Amino acid sequence: xxxxxxxxxxxxxxxxxxxxxxxxxxxxxxxxxxxxxxxxxxxxxxxxxxxxxxxxxxxxxxxxxxxxxxxxxxxxxxxxxxxxxx
Amino acid sequence: xxxxxxxxxxxxxxxxxxxxxxxxxxxxxxxxxxxxxxxxxxxxxxxxxxxxxxxxxxxxxxxxxxxxxxxxxxxxxxxxxxxxxx
Lengths: 86, 86
Known about the structure:
The structure is a homodimer.
Chain A: H1 8-15, H2 34-45, H3 52-58, H4 63-75
Helix pairs in contact in A: 2-3, 2-4
């Protein structure tokens, strides 16, 4: 599989390695639309979405980091273990 | 099944009746965490998330509308057709 994104470590504590969130307050990201994920991360970067932790983490991310993370989570099956692509 | 939420009609054009979005810019909501969905809708209501269409639609919703919509989408299987609950 493609290499894991450089900044993935920041995300997995809340969103999980398989994109299934550990706490009900956090969204599942598995199989989410890539374009939506990119725009959500950009909105945190621009302060158009207010969330202390997310804004802090998104701050230093490059355009490429964001695309890699969106690709990673977007490609995961919405239900872990499902083999067909979302 | 539980009655569809009163305000569901507003949501389905972008998020689908099964919570799978019609356009890549919109998030899938099927099987999403109920608590997260409630907080996201509340953030649109309070302007903590900026999105013209969503803010306009969330404006008139009651607390109960929001809970019903979060329950509806949160209960849907993440992959349509899957019988086990998310």
